[in-house]
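[step 3/7] inverse_fold.run input=structure_tokens len=192
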């Protein structure tokens, strides 16, 4: 069962959530009496607990490729995406323009790398959906959601329209959105 946590109401610091994760962060997975938190740990648990759809591949080489894609995203892209998102949503783009321009330049370069990879394969690591897709997709979606805001108009034009500038990334997003269960995982507050 999914539960929406309202950060503005400090629900992530509620006694119930702190009992599940003393750091007061999400996501948290509760499977029976087992509790797991931190995204990558949850993915590893799900991969081992439910191996019929291997998230980390079926061989050591596949696992290495999946982990490499995750590590690349976390090391080279994620922080820059988050800088852009935070500036748009909370800080104001104009007040952080130099920093945001640098971040946008890096994100655009990394988007070209993703585009090249996805032009050759259906998923980030080969022809099977993997943990790499699970890790990268939310970051891309959050960035697109932030760029859709009025105050991000100038930034938006550097990456969008996705269908024109990054057609392979756009097709990858559509494949993920077509997966069974996708609708149940879509953040409900994003529909508002």
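[step 3/7] decode complete -> sequence:
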């Amino acid at each position: 069962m999914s539960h929406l946590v309202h950060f503005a109401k400090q629900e992530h610091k509620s006694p119930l959530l702190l009992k599940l994760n003393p750091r007061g962060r999400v996501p948290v997975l509760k499977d029976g009496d087992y509790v797991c938190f931190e995204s990558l740990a949850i993915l590893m648990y799900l991969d081992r607990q439910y191996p019929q759809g291997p998230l980390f591949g079926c061989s050591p080489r596949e696992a290495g490729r999946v982990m490499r894609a995750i590590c690349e995203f976390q090391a080279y892209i994620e922080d820059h995406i988050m800088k852009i998102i935070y500036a748009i949503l909370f800080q104001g783009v104009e007040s952080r323009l130099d920093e945001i321009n640098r971040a946008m330049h890096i994100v655009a370069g990394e988007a070209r790398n993703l585009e090249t990879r996805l032009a050759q394969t259906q998923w980030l690591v080969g022809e099977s959906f993997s943990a790499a897709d699970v890790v990268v997709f939310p970051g891309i979606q959050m960035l697109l959601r932030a760029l859709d805001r009025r105050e991000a108009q100038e930034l938006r034009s550097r990456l969008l329209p996705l269908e024109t500038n990054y057609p392979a990334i756009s097709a990858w997003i559509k494949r993920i959105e077509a997966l069974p269960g996708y609708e149940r995982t879509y953040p409900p507050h994003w529909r508002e």
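[step 4/7] annotate
The longest strand covers residues 28-31.
The mean pLDDT is 91.
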